[in-house]
């Protein structure tokens, strides 16, 4: 069937990594672009279904911008490359991670299946390729959002690079990469990709009722493959990065007061982030730190780097499941540091919480978010009143405490403590033991016992405690 846009590419070329947020999500930033080919038979359009093969579980979307070649390009320089473009449109680079093991970087069976490259619904013929906005929605909820100003390799470089070694023909398509946020979708889900000015590409996932057969490559999934497929979204049943399940369970069960005493025993006195209050005292927080630093406002610097997809927004888009966004605001209480929209985006990306020693905007809205948030004050003003969002994933000072990327943070109604990752397991274990002992002591005091010899326990009381524990 002919494509509604009249497209008949001889080749579809896709870039592996090209958005900074996706590179951060994957943990590697390439120095030069790399590519793979998708067969022309994978081309599809808006409204057509995307079929997940029988026996597969990890079908993932990747919202992208399709560059449509309009004039033959062979060894074209960068400054003339965009003259060979007919226009741009939305695309979705679907792939089944269950087949990734079969073809490695070529992605032939993972991404080359019929219907796995829908594009459309319209071609944007006149646009500034450095200021194109791409958004992906899953069942109506925003999953990806990025501007081409965060590309690692611009459209002109891609065309010039490819045309050095092969001829690009009219109708050929270059898929320019996907930003962070790609994840797994299931039968019944509707994925929409919007290129601002060119409309929304809409496709629904359906399950294939036909059996794959017992010949050829078969679906295969490992924990590593599953994590790659889910990207920054939470993997069902997974623990936050860097925390095993027993440690996570223990940290969720103990108070920050108990953790504080365990840290003091180990010579770490500066661990409690001071001056903060919880937006939701009923929520507990356990996660690992993703840091963000704000510096004092200087108007010319803010004008240069503070707008658009600044460090604040990029950091939110890079949050991984189980991470806590920790914002250094220098204790400045004269402006907000985060509002409810970005907090919701962090939550949708799997964030475990937000901690800032500055102001929180839209603070009443946080009462309705299932996201633990700790802040110094409520403040209606935007961050540009006092701050320049500068950089992320560096050591920061928050509420008088040094927080390193990857530190473990635990929060309850009392506040937030910071635990060095190397100590997390033993602190969690000993804190759980301490609380078990203190519950025993509390029960005895409630029964009328004196604290003399009981708190702390002498030999007699400890023997009684240990006998009770053995009987359980």
- Rounded to the nearest angstrom, the distance between the terminal CA atoms is 70 Å
**Low-pLDDT runs:** none
Q: What sort of overall outline do the alpha carbons produce when their principal axes are compared?
A: globular
- The average pLDDT score comes to 92
Helix content: 10-25%
Query: Percent of residues in beta strands?
Result: 25-35%
Q: What's the alpha carbon Rg, rounded to whole Å? A: 26 Å
Q: With helices defined by DSSP (H or I, 4 residues minimum), what is the helix count?
A: 13
Q: Care to count the β-strands?
A: 29
Structural class: alpha/beta
Largest sheet: 9 strands, mixed
Spell out the blueprint of helices and strands.
Elements: E1 12-15, H1 20-26, E2 35-38, E3 43-45, E4 50-52, E5 59-60, E6 63-69, H2 78-81, E7 85-92, E8 95-96, H3 100-103, H4 108-111, E9 117-119, E10 133-138, E11 141-147, H5 155-163, E12 173-175, E13 184-185, E14 190-195, E15 200-207, H6 223-230, H7 245-253, H8 256-265, E16 272-273, E17 277-278, E18 285-296, H9 299-305, H10 311-318, E19 323-328, E20 336-338, H11 340-348, E21 353-356, E22 359-360, E23 373-375, E24 377-378, E25 387-392, E26 396-398, E27 401-403, E28 408-412, E29 415-419, H12 424-446, H13 459-471
Parallel strand pairs: 1-12, 3-9, 4-15, 18-19, 19-21, 20-22, 21-23, 22-24
Antiparallel strand pairs: 1-2, 5-8, 5-13, 6-7, 6-12, 10-11, 10-14, 14-15, 16-29, 17-23, 18-25, 18-28, 26-27, 28-29
């Amino acid at each position: 069937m002919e494509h509604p846009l009249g497209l008949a590419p001889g080749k579809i070329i896709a870039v592996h990594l090209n958005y900074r947020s996706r590179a951060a999500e994957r943990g590697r930033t390439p120095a030069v672009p790399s590519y793979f080919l998708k067969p022309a038979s994978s081309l599809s359009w808006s409204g057509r279904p995307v079929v997940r093969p029988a026996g597969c579980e990890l079908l993932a979307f990747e919202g992208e911008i399709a560059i449509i070649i309009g004039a033959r390009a062979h060894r074209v320089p960068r400054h003339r490359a965009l003259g060979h473009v007919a226009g741009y449109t939305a695309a979705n680079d679907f792939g089944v991670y269950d087949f990734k093991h079969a073809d490695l970087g070529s992605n032939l069976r993972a991404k080359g299946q019929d219907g796995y490259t829908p594009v459309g619904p319209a071609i944007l013929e006149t646009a500034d390729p450095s200021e194109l906005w791409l958004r992906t929605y899953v069942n109506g909820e925003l999953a990806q959002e990025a501007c081409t100003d965060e590309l690692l390799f611009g459209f002109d470089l891609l065309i010039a690079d490819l045309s050095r070694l092969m001829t690009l023909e009219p109708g050929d398509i270059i898929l320019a990469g996907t930003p962070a946020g790609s994840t797994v979708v299931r039968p019944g889900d509707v994925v929409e990709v919007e290129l601002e000015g060119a409309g929304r590409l809409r496709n629904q996932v359906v399950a294939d009722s036909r059996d794959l057969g017992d010949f050829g490559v078969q679906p295969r999934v490992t924990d590593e493959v599953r994590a790659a497929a889910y990207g920054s979204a939470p993997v069902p049943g997974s623990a936050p990065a860097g925390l095993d399940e027993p440690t996570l369970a223990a940290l969720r069960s103990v108070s920050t007061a108990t953790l504080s005493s365990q840290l003091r025993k180990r010579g770490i006195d500066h661990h409690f982030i001071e001056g903060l209050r919880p937006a939701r005292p009923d929520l507990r927080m356990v996660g690992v730190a993703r840091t963000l630093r704000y510096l004092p406002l200087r108007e010319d610097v803010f004008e240069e780097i503070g707008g658009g997809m600044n460090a604040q927004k990029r950091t939110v888009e890079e949050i991984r499941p189980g991470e806590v966004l920790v914002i250094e605001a220098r204790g400045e209480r004269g402006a907000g540091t985060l509002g409810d929209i970005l907090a919701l985006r962090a939550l949708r990306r799997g964030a475990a919480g937000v901690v800032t020693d500055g102001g929180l905007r839209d603070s009443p809205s946080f009462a309705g978010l299932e996201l633990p948030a700790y802040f110094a004050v409520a403040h209606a003003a935007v961050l540009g009143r006092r701050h320049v969002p500068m950089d992320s994933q560096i050591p920061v000072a928050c509420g008088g405490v040094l927080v390193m990327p990857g530190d473990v943070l635990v929060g309850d109604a009392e506040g937030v403590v910071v635990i060095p990752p190397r100590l997390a397991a033993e602190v969690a274990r000993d804190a759980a033991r301490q609380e078990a002992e203190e519950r025993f002591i509390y029960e005895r005091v409630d029964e009328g016992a004196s604290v003399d010899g009981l708190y702390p326990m002498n030999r007699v009381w400890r023997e009684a405690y240990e006998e009770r524990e053995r009987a359980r």
